[in-house]
Structure formats: C-alpha cells, structure tokens
Amino acid sequence: MDIKELISTVKEYGVAGAGGAGFPTYAKLDKRAETIILNCAECEPLLKVHRQVLQKYAYEIMSTLGLMAEALEAKQVILAVKAAYQKTVEAVKANLYSFPKLEIKLLKEVYPMGDEVVLIYETTGKKVAPGSIPIETGVAVFNVETVFNIYKAISNKEAVYTKYLTIAGEVKNPVTIKAPIGMSVEEAVGIAGGPKIKDFVYFMGGPMTGSIINGYDTISKTTNAILVLPADHTVIHKKSGNSSIDMKRAMATCCQCEMCTDLCPRHLLGQPITPHMFMRAATSGVTQDLSPFLDTMFCCSCGICEMYACPQDLAPRKLITEYKTRLRSKGIPIPKGIASKETDAMREYRMVPMDRLTKRLGLKQYDVNAPLDDKDLMVNQVKINLNQHIGAKAVPLVHKNDFVSKGDVIAQAEKDKLSLPVHASITGEIIEVNDKFVIIKAR
Ligand code: SF4
Ligand code: SF4
Q1: What is the pLDDT of residues 281-311, one digit of tens each?
Q2: Separation of CA 266 and ligand 2 centre (Å)
Q3: DSSP class of residue 231?
Q4: Which tens digits make up the pLDDT trace of 321-344?
Q5: CA–centroid distance, residue 254 to ligand 1 (Å)
C-alpha cells in the first residue's frame, strides 16, 4: 500500500487519534517520519485500554505498523510499552520474530509518559523544539487503538464507530468495554454494574486531564475512560473550582516555592514554561515582561503543577490554560524558533511515579483490574456528535426518518479543512439531526 492509498483509507473510515485531542490520523501520515512510535504508555491512573488492546491484538497492530512504515518509508518503528505491562510486553515479544524491523522500548511507569514530547525523548533521545510538532523532528506517534483502527479500516473496511474505554471508580465491576460511539455515559456505566454509591459524579477521561460530565453525555472517538467518583473526592474538588476564585487564592497564597516549575515535565526537558513565573506575573499584574504569558503556549496541560506539585492546592494549570485559550482566540500564534534548553540535571529524580500519583490523588482503592470485554454491545439509541476531534466538524448527510446501517456515513468531512467523516454506530432510524449531532434509534 502506498502513502496515498493509506491516507485515503484512514480518512474514508474516519480514523482519528483515539484519545487526547483526536487529531485526524491522515494528517499525521507524512513521509518526513523517519521513526514511527507506537504509544502504549497509557498515561493516566486507572486507564487500562491500550495495554489490553495491544496484548490481545499484538499481531494485527504490529502488522499494521509494518505496513505504515512501508508506506511512509520510515527507517525505524518502535513499540513504546511500559515495562510494568508485563503481559503486553510478552505479547509483543512473542510476535517480534514475525516483524524483524520492529523494536520494543520499555518505558518507566511515570506520569506523563504518554505526552508525545516526553515519549519521543524517552524513546529516541530526540527533543521536539518548543512550539513545534513531532513530525518536524522526524517522528510520528500513534497510540495503540488508533493503529488498531487503521488495521480495521484496511483489513475489514470497518469505520471507526466503536471506542474502547475503561469504566472505573465507584462501580460494581470495573471493566474495559468497546462501546458504540454515541452511547450515553449512564448506559456505559450500567455495563460496569452501575454506581455503588448515591452521591457520585461522572468524570470523562483520566483523572489528570479529564473533566466532570453528565450521565446524558455521550462517548466519542477520544473517550478513553469514564470514572464514577464520590462528589467530595479530591479530584472532583480540584476540577470544579472557579477560575476567578482560583486567581484570588493564588494572589493570597502563592508562596513562589517553585515546586510547580521544578516538577513540570516540559520545563524539565528544557521547554520555556515556568508556571511559578506565570503565577507571579498573573497575580501581581506584572506586564513589563510578557514572556510568562506567551510561554503558556508551551504547556501541555498535564496537570502535574496543580494536581500533584503545588503544596498550597493552587491551580496553575487551570489559569495557564485560560490564558493560553485567550491568546489563541486573539490569533496570537505559538512562538516558533525557540531552542530547548539543556535537560534539567535533576529530571531523572523529579519524574512522578504513577503509584505515588495515584495515591496522592486518593485513587489507590480504584486501581484494580478492569478486564477487557470487547463484545459488541446493543444499545437502544445513540447521539453521535459531529465534532469529535480537533479540526472542523463534519457536515450531516442524513435526514430525519432516514434508515441507516451500522458503518454508513452519516456526516461528511468538511471540504478542504482538517476534518473527518462520521459513521453510524448502530443500525436504525434517524430521529434527530442538526449541525451538532445525529440521534439514531435502533430498529
Ligand atoms: S507550587 Fe503553588 S505555591 Fe509554589 S510557586 Fe507554584 S503555584 Fe505558587
Ligand atoms: S500543566 Fe503545569 S506541569 Fe503540566 S506542562 Fe503545564 S505548567 Fe507544566
């Protein structure tokens, strides 16, 4: 398969990054990629998707990586897997003899190992320059489920209409399921036996970067977890603050201890992000030097500063994100051409072990097996968002009362934009369509 055919297939079948911002995968298929990295770092506590999918489908995923390497003419393919995922490592090693050009790299169990900048450094020793993207360093990173979706698109002509996700926390039977896209959060939690407690909050994504949601919200191409947490849990407390109160608290109590900067994973790699300097400038109204504000663009929103480092329980990440968003909305571009500084000599000792992070977040009791059960699930109704990833949303092609089959295209990619088509995740009748979502009732 050549690169043109590969790009057109992953675009046609709607493959986006299965997690994070969900970058459309076709846009990452670029011949500048000398190295392809399979990201099996499963970045956040409690998430158990990628390790299990790779363990079960190692052959399919590795053969697809071989094919991608051929199409991109990449020189190196590295499967980056945390050493702690012993069964996954065994599954990969058992298949390596079939794919001699593929290598495995074992990673430490630290957070945020899945951040592409950190992962590329740990895997290849290369540094992604501040404000640039991995392909500019000759590297393309794909996570496990994304590559499995590419496999399904090529081999089965199957579109992305399901999503693997872990359901954990205060549920009776933590589990990792393959849900139809558009399934409601409440229904998905029901598969895990439902909530065990009365006063709970639904949370989508990992505890570090996810957010509080409602039971009627739905699963998208990037949903990798649903957590059910007590309403008074530390994670819920940290995520539900109001940024104007956060700023006032910072003005009163930020003691400039620099712990946020000392543990910031991007800062440790020499990127110009110094959260304590931002807090000083923002809380004291300093405007002579704008760099602490512009440097917010280099923050990856990992949350180490506010969820782990700050002894005053302040929220640098939230305030930084707000600034970054405002700068972007004013059309201010990410500063380019800045070289990374030397890697901090203390980096090795300042990486955050997952176990310690999980304990610090008060999640240790929920860190249990969530076995993969990837049978097809039957649902009565799905509400499929047309904007499931970074880029332009899809344009609906269907009308009320139309009948669609699973896998049919229900919305097309917006022309000449970074965009992907959206497919029906169940067979049934369209009962509502607008420019934001399509609802299908099973028939
Ligand atoms: S860790 Fe907290 S108190 Fe210390 S400088 Fe950063 S924001 Fe301020
Ligand atoms: S969220 Fe905080 S720790 Fe993470 S990159 Fe941004 S400033 Fe650094």
Answers
A1: 999 988 888 899 999 999 999 999 999 999 9
A2: 7
A3: T
A4: 999 999 999 999 888 888 899 999
A5: 5
